[in-house]
Amino acid sequence: MKIKTTHEEYRQDIIEDLRSLTFAQKRKVLKKADKLVLDNVNYHQGVKYLHTLDYVKRFPSKHQKTLNTTEEILLVMRTIFIRDEKQKFFEEKRKNILKLV
């Protein structure tokens, strides 16, 4: 039996994961993670001298009721990259604190 997950469930996971950060920190982490995901997805979509129309430019809309497999994979990648960027952010913050001491 396949369980369908909606866009709202992925958003709730991200919200719970970033709850401890301020708005500016959340924005910084989300921008870095989103850029990394889109860069990784679009890495093999064309060559330097010829652009294609197959580039992924944005994530699926939050108002979309059903997700196809590609959109679901994109959202799973996004949550993984957000957790990774959050971890890097905290490591960088710890390094800066330790330098002061």
Protein model, in words:
With 101 residues, the chain is mainly α. It has one domain. The chain has helices spanning 7-17, 23-41, 69-100; strands at residues 46-47, 50-51. It is flat, with a radius of gyration of 16 Å.
Multimer state: single chain
Poorly predicted runs of 5 or more residues: none
Question: Terminal Cα separation, in Å?
Answer: 55 Å
From the alpha carbons, calculate the radius of gyration and give it in angstroms.
Answer: 16 Å
Query: Helical percent range?
Result: 55-70%
State the major sheet: 2 strands, antiparallel
> What is the overall pLDDT average?
83
SS-based structural class? mainly alpha
What is the number of beta strands?
2
Shape field: flat
Strand proportion: under 5%
The number of distinct helices, counting runs of at least 4 residues, comes to 3
- SSE string, helices as H and strands as E: HHEEH
- How many domain modules? 1
Strand order, sheet with most strands:
1-2
How is the topology of this model organized?
Elements: H1 7-17, H2 23-41, E1 46-47, E2 50-51, H3 69-100
Antiparallel strand pairs: 1-2
Q: Can you describe this structure in just a few lines?
A:
This protein is mainly alpha-helical and 101 residues long. It is built from three helices and two strands; from the N terminus they run H-H-E-E-H.
